[in-house]
Amino acid sequence: MNRSTYRLRGFRGWLMAGLAVAVLAAAPSARAAGVQFATFNNTTGNPFSFQNLTTSAAVGISTLATPVTFNFLSNTGQSTQDRAGTLTISATTSTPASATPIPGIGKTQLDQPFNTNAAGNSVTVRENSTGKILLQMTFTGDLTGFQGSSVGQLAGDTATGNTVTYFSDYLNFGPGGNSFVLGLPNTSVPLSIGPGGFLNSFNTNVNGSFSASTFTAAVPEPASVVMYGTGLVACVVLARRARRRVSV
Contact at 8 Å (CB) between 96 and 198? Predict the structure, then answer.
């Protein structure tokens, strides 16, 4: 084997390595069923509002520009840095709450369904710096907690028959099981059933956790773009060096 042929084969190996770096950087991430992919947290005021309207009930955000800190998890291929966002929530129900005693612990579980208006029940977090939608969800689910407690949650899971549909400017979502939990950690009044059989009105902070069976990155993060470009530049440099060596 002459020296030119040896160097050409070496160049091909480096070329394939550079292409591998580029492909891995551009490839979207996908995960199996039931994987948590994002969270948000609100710590200022009590913006989550539950309203007993006597013949129906509604949840919403009492402050139009409710600030939250949103995070994608590392399994999404997106940056995990804190993102400042603005939260909106809207949901209504005409189904009264139920009260179920829990044997053995002396507590009563309250369940306020939000299961009749999937198209109108929504949670949206919009990124402040770009205006893009970090996450938008339409849902049905249940607001639950123990009677007399100041802690509750609004949750839904497609595995139990709820509707949970996602959209994001940063992720694409495929078919499969989705679920979410909106934690309500400190209600302004203890949970109880009031007029019309709906929960009594209250306000609280809110945090969110979201899971999906299948998702892929829709927009490469800057770090991925840099890595992709680095791989391509490496390919060009190696190609030029190989041509010079072969010509010599």
Answer: yes
- Rounded CA-CA distance 81/34 in Å is 23
Q: Token pair of 117, please? A: 């208006």
Question: What digits encode the pLDDT tens for the residues 118-151?
Answer: 889 999 999 999 999 999 999 999 999 999 999 9
Are residues 130 and 196 located together in one domain of the fold? yes
Q: Which domain holds residue 236?
A: 1-28+221-248
| pTM confidence score | 0.76
What is the total count of domains within the chain?
2
Name the nearest CA neighbour of 169 among 32, 41, 38, 75: 38
Same domain, 94 and 192: yes
Helix spans in the chain (H): 3-26, 222-247
pLDDT tens-digit profile of 171-220?
999 988 999 999 999 999 999 999 999 999 999 999 999 999 999 998 65
pLDDT recorded at residue 247: 52
Q: Which whole-number Å values give the CA distances from 225 to 45, 130, 131, 168, 197, in the listed order?
A: 38, 18, 21, 19, 54
Question: Sign of the CA dihedral 216, 159, 155, 152?
Answer: negative
Using a 10 angstrom Cβ sphere, with 0-12 exposed, 13-18 middle and 19 or more buried, the burial of residue 182 is buried
